[in-house]
Structure formats: C-alpha cells, structure tokens
Amino acid sequence: MKFTAFERQTQGTGASRRLRNTGKTPGIVYGGNAAPQAIELDHNALWQAIQKEAFHSSVLEMELGGQVTKVVLRDVQYHPYKPQVLHVDFQRVDENTRLRKKVPLHFVNADNSPAVKADKCLINHVVTELEIECLATQLPDFIEVDLGNLHKGQSLHANDLKLAAGIKIVTHGKPNPTIATVVEPVEEVVTAPTAAAADDKKGKKGKK
C-alpha cells in the first residue's frame, strides 16, 4: 500500500491541535540511517487507510518530499470517542531490517473439517493475531490457519502453523500457544414433569 505524507514544520501540543483542526494528522517517522522526522497526513485519507487490515500488518510505501520510503506502522493514537486519529508513528525499514510485528490470522476450511461437518461442533478462535519476528521483506499481510483437519476434541497450536522460512512466532514464554479449539455442541435437555409434580398440581386444583 502507498500513502502520501508531508513534512511538518511546527511541533508541540498547540501546533498539533491547530493541525488537527485543519483536517490533518500529526505523525513521526523514524528508524534507518536518517533522523526522526515530523510529518503530517490528510486525516480523511489516513482514516480510510487504517480501516484496511494490510495497513497495519504489511510494509507500506510512504511518499514524502518526492521520495518513496518503505515503512511499517508502529502506533496509532485514537480520540477517546470521536472517529479521529490523533497521531501516528511509522518506522523506516529496508531489506536488512529485522522486526517484530503482529499480523492477523485468517481462518479457512472450518466448515469442511470433520469436527464441524460430521460432529456438528464449533471451532473457537482463541487468538486472532500473532506476533512474529522476521525480516521486513518477509513480513506477510496475514497468516492462513487451515482448520480443515480438526476433529472432535482437538486443538490447533502455534507449532501446527505452516510459516515461510525465516519467520518465527514470538510466544512470550508460552512454548506452544493454542490458536483454535473444537467446542462440542451443548444439547438442551428437556425434563418431563415428574409424577409427584403432576399429583401436586391435581391436588391444588382440587382445593379450588
């Protein structure tokens, strides 16, 4: 994805507030061999971009001052209740940049799994994204999770995922975190009225 940014001349809380009032969003880009640089972006264009999953998880092309730089989105600050982006951070990357980034999981083939198709179970998505470590050039837009072989009573774990060479899952101390689990359907049991309850009802009618 490609987006356009502009060099920001003024900084500070007051300057950022005035910038937002003109329909712009302040930001910063850092990393690489260049110094951090204050930038501004058109808010409406930015708002449309951040609705797209790939804007958060892939390498982006930022056009700034007539030059295109590869970056990744590092942070977004939102207004507490307005549909407004207050600030954005980007990191410059190149083919040698090794980074950690959260990427979304795309679950496929659940309806074709024996757990769902034969046993009428449900598949619970325990997590919807994973943090990975890789070179910027290897960063995937998403990780596909194939649920097609899940059976009743089974779970899918991080080690079951098929990842490209060089991509490592960051587990934060959990050796093999669960990605999805099969949940058996809950059957409602309708209990027939007991003989004692039926006699009790008859007794109450007789008293009337």
Automatic annotation (TrEMBL):
Pfam family, one: Ribosomal_TL5_C
Gene Ontology biological process terms in this record: translation
Listed GO CC annotations: cytosolic large ribosomal subunit
Boundaries of every Large ribosomal subunit protein bL25 L25 domain copy: 5-90
Domain Large ribosomal subunit protein bL25 beta, residue spans: 100-185
GO terms for MF: 5S rRNA binding; structural constituent of ribosome
Statement: the UniProt record of this protein carries the keyword RNA-binding: yes
Region (Disordered): 1-25
Keywords: Ribonucleoprotein, Ribosomal protein, RNA-binding, rRNA-binding
Function: This is one of the proteins that binds to the 5S RNA in the ribosome where it forms part of the central protuberance.
HAMAP family, per the entry: Ribosomal_bL25 (MF_01336), Ribosomal_bL25_CTC (MF_01334)
Subunit structure: Part of the 50S ribosomal subunit; part of the 5S rRNA/L5/L18/L25 subcomplex. Contacts the 5S rRNA. Binds to the 5S rRNA independently of L5 and L18.
Homology family: Belongs to the bacterial ribosomal protein bL25 family. CTC subfamily.
Protein name (record): Large ribosomal subunit protein bL25
Organism: Tepidimonas fonticaldi
Lineage, uppermost ranks: Bacteria, Pseudomonadati, Pseudomonadota, Betaproteobacteria, Burkholderiales
